[in-house]
């Protein structure tokens, strides 16, 4: 089966896994909380920006979208902290999600450095 180039990236695959994980988590968090919507949007932004960035022709454009994906990854981690602070999820659940996000951030930093060796991340 043919695939888009971004679908071959492990970081994209992990981002999709996190979206599924977060979606299951949010099924148990009332929608009235802003963190519910924010985590949904931030987690969705990660693979979308990886895909778009991977399709760009210049390193600068690719890095811009990988930077946005990295920011959305950090935002997702903060949303998990907020959900814990509001006693909407357990700390160990948040830590599970944050471990997934740490791996994603590491891979995104690798992609950014591979595309722009002079960049400090």
Automatic annotation (TrEMBL):
InterPro entries in alphabetical order: 23S_rRNA-intervening_sequence, 23S_rRNA_IVS_sf
Family annotation (Pfam families): 23S_rRNA_IVP (PF05635)
Top-level taxon of the source organism: Bacteria
UniProt signal peptide: none
Coiled-coil intervals, chain numbering: none
Matching SUPFAM superfamilies: IVS-encoded protein-like
PANTHER family assigned: FOUR HELIX BUNDLE PROTEIN
NCBIfam families in the record: four helix bundle protein (TIGR02436)
Protein name according to UniProt: Four helix bundle protein
UniProt organism field: Aporhodopirellula rubra
